[in-house]
Amino acid sequence: MRGLTPATGAPVVPAHCRAHARPVARLEWRPGDPLPAGKTAADLVESFLSERGLPVADLAAAGSGVDLPHGPGDICGAALYVSAAAGATLVGVSPGRPTPIPEVPEIVAIVYAHSEYSITQSSDLGLDSAAEFSLGPWIPSWSESDHAEAVAAVRDAIAAGDVYQVNVVGHAAAAYAGDPLPALERLAGLRGAHYAGLISGDGWAIACASPETLVRVRAGIAQTRPIKGTAKATEEGRAMLLASAKERAEHVMIVDLERNDLAQVAQIGSVRVEELFALKHWGDLWQAESTVTARLRPGVGLAELLRAVCPGGSVTGAPKLAALAQIARLEPVGRGASMGALGWVGRDGLDLGLTIRTVAATPAQLHLWAGGGITWGSDPAAEVAEAAAKAAPIKALLGAQPAR
Is residue 275 flagged as an active site residue? Predict the structure, then answer.
């Protein structure tokens, strides 16, 4: 997993660039790396992209939302990844337990220029790509009973008035042999995966099949689309989700949190809920989604936007800082590549997905995370089952043998 991944693999690359974008610059940041005095890692990313011609210093004034045609040598845009731990650091709280994938940086930005030649996806994984891929059993970082106890602990914190809701996430890892890249690329085929693709570096890769928009900016309008509420993709599941007071209450709390997040960077009075609790398909599940928009204040840059929306409210809880403290206390390992942001920063705006339904590869293991939001009405056993249901299609896809 060495070198710069061509943009053909990154999520939400503009169609006219997908086959012609070549990597020309890369930024990686890990905790402990030096930062300019008085600056955060988000400021570092903004400066890095601005210096390479991307209009991220004032997103309210960045273009009309239409990416104009460009030719050989012009900058297309950049793939951007920000981990959940980096997001917590940006808002000044603990990033939680150590990551199980220390090979993966906490922030990655890869800038691409337009090439006159077509570029195909390739990756040097540093492994025996001739060997047949095989995947071992998934080993969780906690037991089902440990997971259930964490849910119960959140309910106790809610009863004490410390939080209203906390998203609790578990992790699992599986050893593999052979080349994992084809398995990672299969994630893009999952139904509803708007943020489908992968990026890689020296000794690591991240593959994403997320349906959830963390933040999208076009023509000065920021949009977030939180997903909260899950049921089986059957008519019975749909009816149950629509009738569930618990799921709706959980969802509305997160919509309010996202409204508050966008209000930090919005013109006064411009925050709107455009759609509330709309049911969408993802794989074999129904999930409830809302759309919140806001007009950005003049002068809001990428760094300020990232500090406002990261980590995403639908995977933290409310109030956000108190929920992050509970997450750091209860989850057995760090969130690694999950529950962060991954997407594209272009000349016409940006589009970052929340890294749910996301898998990380290190030289010997694949890693995934799944969980759900916990409220006072949550049943521990049901929450454990819901997390397993979210992880199941990804595990099945990764372990599937390709047709011969």
Answer: no
Token pair of 64 as six digits: 């009309």
Query: To the nearest whole percent, how much of the chain has pLDDT over 70?
Result: 91
- Written as one letter, the residue type at 100 is P
Catalytic residue among 212, 247, 289, 304: 212
Q: Which of 228, 320, 390, 395 is catalytic?
A: 228
Q: What is the CATH number of the domain that holds 18?
A: 3.60.120.10
Q: Is residue 341 part of a domain?
A: yes
Name, in order, each residue with C-beta under 8 angstroms of 261's C-beta and a sequence gap of 6 or more. Answer: 224, 308, 309, 313, 320
Asked whether residue 130 is assigned to any structural domain, the reply reads: no
**Residue 404 located in a structural domain:** no
The pLDDT confidence band at residue 340, using thresholds 50, 70 and 90, is very high
Please check the confidence at residue 402 and state whether its pLDDT lies above 70: no
Q: Which domain holds residue 167?
A: 7-124+136-398
Q: Assign residue 364 a region: left if phi > 0, alpha if psi is -120 to 50, beta otherwise?
A: alpha
- Across the range 249-263, mean pLDDT stands at 95
Q: Is 212 an active-site residue?
A: yes
Q: Count of CB atoms within 10 A of residue 353's CB?
A: 30
Q: Is residue 278 part of a domain?
A: yes
H or E element at residue 84 = helix 84-90
Direct distance between the N- and C-terminal alpha carbons of the chain, in angstroms, rounded to an integer: 25
For strand 165-177 and strand 195-201, is the pairing parallel, antiparallel, or unpaired? unpaired
Instruction: Provide the domain count of the chain.
Output: 1
Query: What DSSP element (H or E) covers 201?
Result: strand 195-201
Task: Tell me how far apart the alpha carbons of residues 140 and 128 are, in angstroms, rounded to a whole number.
Answer: 26
Q: What is the pLDDT of residues 153-182, one digit of tens each?
A: 999 999 999 999 999 999 999 999 999 999
